[in-house]
Inverse folding.
């Protein structure tokens, strides 16, 4: 009886918070190098191990474009991102960046980077780009002219970057354990938060007034980016918050982690509001599933893309 009870408890754990998604898509045959969900939840961008880069429209599960940096070759993407208004996207290998127009599928700009590209963030209209690099610096680029306007420095690799919608405020997170907030064009950060050992993810609200930083193997914090006031702590110890994004009204933060969970938090209190858990690809042999990026819509719809190239969409049943 005890063995049966243990088995039943294990099964209950596996199906805890079971809430099958409204839509589930498999966008790659194997895992992805890098992937992203557009802020409006309409598109997914995948840099697949086998198929190169591709843009998908989630509503009808249609692949719109194949995006690779050299004709006839599949690009190994080191980072991908959408603009804050979901009109443009950027893809990068370790040394080259391409910006794409989502409406036409055509490239809008090309840039070279020598620092080893780790992360990307693009503002409204694709006007300004932040590039996090392995050489302890991030580039601030005006895409219309291709000019590097500024370099933003840390004392470690810059794992994660974010930018406000108007391209005036940025956040950078580094393996040096700090999150920095920049008024772009100013030489020094307006805020520096020493969080811990290694930053896994950052987010900044559309207006640049809130910033989030998450730790590898640890919790994350939300601050007022202008005053430096710490607002709340979210997440769990010994779990990495791998993705984060603020809601449009700044009241909620949605995060994804390395154990398949997507969670919504109250910004002011840090309390959990909702949780979704993806089904594991397999139980044996054990298979990990990391949330790569998340999206939360005003109607409560949640979208998440995972390290195996799959996408889950949960419609808000309450409307």
């Amino acid at each position: 009886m005890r063995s049966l009870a243990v088995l039943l408890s294990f099964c209950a754990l596996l199906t805890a918070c079971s809430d099958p998604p409204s839509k589930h898509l498999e966008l790659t045959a194997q895992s992805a190098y890098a992937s992203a969900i557009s802020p409006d939840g309409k598109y997914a961008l995948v840099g697949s191990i086998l198929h190169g880069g591709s843009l998908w429209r989630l509503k009808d599960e249609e692949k719109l474009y194949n995006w690779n940096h050299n004709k006839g070759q599949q690009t190994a993407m080191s980072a991908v991102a959408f603009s804050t208004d979901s009109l443009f996207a950027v893809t990068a290998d370790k040394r080259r960046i391409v910006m794409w127009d989502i409406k036409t599928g055509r490239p809008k700009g090309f840039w070279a980077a020598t620092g080893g590209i780790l992360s990307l963030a693009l503002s409204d209209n694709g006007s300004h780009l932040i590039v996090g690099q392995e050489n302890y610096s991030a580039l601030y680029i005006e895409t219309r002219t291709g000019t590097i306007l500024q370099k933003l420095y840390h004392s470690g690799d810059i794992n994660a970057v974010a930018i406000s919608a108007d391209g005036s405020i940025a956040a950078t997170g580094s393996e040096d354990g700090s999150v920095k907030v920049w008024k772009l064009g100013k030489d020094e950060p307006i805020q520096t938060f020493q969080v811990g050992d290694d930053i896994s993810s950052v987010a900044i609200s559309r207006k640049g007034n809130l910033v989030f930083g998450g730790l590898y193997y640890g919790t994350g914090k939300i601050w007022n980016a202008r005053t430096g006031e710490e607002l709340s702590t979210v997440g769990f110890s010994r779990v990495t918050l791998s993705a984060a994004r603020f809601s449009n009204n700044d009241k909620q933060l949605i995060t994804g982690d390395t154990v398949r969970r997507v969670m919504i938090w109250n910004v002011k209190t840090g309390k959990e509001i909702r949780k979704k858990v993806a089904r594991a690809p397999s139980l044996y042999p054990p298979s990990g599933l990391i949330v790569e990026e998340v999206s939360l819509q005003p109607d409560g719809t949640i979208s998440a893309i995972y390290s195996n190239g799959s996408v889950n969409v949960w419609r808000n049943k309450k409307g």
Observations:
- Helices lie at 2-14.
- The longest strand covers residues 147-153.
- The CA atoms of residues 15 and 181 lie 40 Å apart.
- The chain has one domain: 33-314.
